[in-house]
Amino acid sequence: MLVSILEPALGLIIWQLVIFGVLFFLLAKFAWKPIMGALQEREQSIEDALSLAAKTRQEMTDLKAGNEKLIAEARAERDRLLKEAKEAGDAMIAQAKADAQKAGAEEIEKARAAFNQERANAVASLKKETAALSLEIAEKVLRNQLSDRSAQENLVSNLLADAKLN
Amino acid sequence: MKKVYFSNIFAFLFLISSTLFAQEHSADSTANHEATEATAAPAHAEGEAHGEEAEAFNPGKMMMEHIADEHEWHFATAGHTHYSVPLPCIVWNKGGLKVFSSSRFKDEHHENNATYEGLKLEEGKIVAEDGSFVLDLSITKNVASLLISVALLLGIFFTIAKSYKERSGKAPKGIQSLFEPIIVFIRDEVAKQNIGEKHYRRFTPYLLTVFFFIWFNNMLGLLPGSANVTGNIAITLVLAVIAFFVTNLNGRSTYWGHIFAMPGVPKWLLVLLTPVEIIGVFMKPISLMIRLFANITAGHLILLSLIALIFIFKSLGVAAIAVPFSVFMNLIELLVAFLQAFIFTVLTSTYIGAAVEEHHH
Question: Could you give phi then psi for residue B115, rounded to 5 degrees?
């Protein structure tokens, strides 16, 4: 009996070879192949989904960063425009002021020139008037004083004295 | 003959199971041995086993009958009635194929002592009365159990394959999710781990088949009244031979180089080392064969011994101890069933891994 346990039976060996062979063939062809294929496919799809999610997340981050960049750019643009407008305004005001000043100065200059001219004219005519008046007065005084001889002599001597003193 | 086996059982037990177990039983072995001889010898000689065999319980015979293959599927014996299913006998003898039911061997007492067409059963084997060669291709209990396990395996894994096709890309469901972790485990932790990224795909179907074949048959063997398939040396022999061919037919130059001219070893040492390596090539499958056979058979023997104790002592007290122990052993055997299938698969994959390994010095 012990021998029969330790001694492999030829019939059972043949049956086991055939049965295991058939089992392997059937399982390999109709079970393991589709199962392995499906497992690999599923693992692949899970891996793909995971990498896609990571990629999408990266894209979202990039997009967010892009948005922020755009906003910053817009803000900078606005600041620049405002600054430019202010500068332009300031420049215009300065220009206008300068122009006004220039025009004012010109007017003043013109007025001064005209005034000087007028004054010169006035002075000249005044001088002429004065000279004529002086001559008239002098003529009258002379006529009046030189009616007697002594007065004439007195005058001449005075004139002479003055002339000496000079 | 009947008397020979009993003393051998204990030597055998000593060989395969724990020393504890052997010691426990060696005490009453001699006593039982003598008792068996006394009852079994005349019973056999006179051919009227009936009355006396029913009287004396023969634990060795009972255990061996449970472990050995047989031509009928015997479930139970109550009194003088055997509850068994006869199985077909297919025999090639004297140039002719004979197919008949194993019930032909039953005599009037329902014992397997009858002869049929010059054939008779001798210790569970069909032999010719005239001593001519007999090729016994019968559907024995083991073959029948093998066929059942194959039907089970095909049924389960075809169903799973179908659900993979139907639910492609979706999460596993039902029986699919029960087996998927095991399949993935064998693929990733056994095949890929031991064979390597490059070659593991080729061997995964073989390893999966081996694993589930052994596991299922181990589990079926634990059912009461079932056959002891993976504890049969013919079965493990075939599995080992297949593993041997799968390993060596895929052997690369590095593998053979390590066997015949171990690199980095002085020439004179190779004289010693090469024979050892060549023996190793054969020892590996032999160890696979013996490991599975011995582990499963030992488990069955321990369980049967525990149960036999009850019948030997015919005491309720012994039963109170033996039954919890048997339950405990059964639980351990469930673990062993998985473990031995796993070990066989892992070792086969490491042998294959060594064979297909690329040169990397």
Answer: -110, 150
* ipTM of the complex model: 0.80
Residues in CB range of B157: below 8 A, 6 or more apart: A27, A31, A32, A35, B179, B212
Q: What is the pLDDT along chain A (166 residues), one digit of tens a residue?
A: 456 678 888 899 999 999 999 999 999 999 999 999 999 988 898 999 999 999 999 999 999 999 999 999 999 999 999 999 999 999 999 999 999 999 999 999 999 999 999 999 999 998 998 889 888 888 888 777 777 778 778 878 888 888 766 5
* AA letter at A129: E
A95 class by beta-carbon count within 10 Å (0-12 exposed, 13-18 middle, 19+ buried): exposed
CA distance B239 to B342: 14
Burial class of residue B65 (count of CB atoms within 10 Å of its CB; 0-12, 13-18, 19+) = middle
What domain range is A65 assigned to? 22-165
- Between the CA atoms of B39, B43, B44 and B47, what dihedral angle is there, to the nearest 10 degrees? 180
Chain B hits for A1, Cβ within 8 Å: 2, 4-5, 61, 64, 68, 123-124
**Domains identified in chain A, total number:** 1
d(CA B277, CA B193): 24
A161: left (phi over 0), alpha (psi -120 to 50) or beta: alpha
Domain annotation covers residue A120 = yes
Give the whole-angstrom CA distance, residue B11 versus residue A32.
Answer: 43
Distance, in angstroms, between B275 CA and closest chain A CA?
27
Residue carrying structure tokens 């593993």: B243
One-letter amino acid at B67 equals I
Residue A9 lies in a domain: no
Q: Quote the tokens at residue B283.
A: 């020892």
- Which of B157, B165, B204 would you mutate first to test chain A, the one with the most A CBs within 10 A? B157
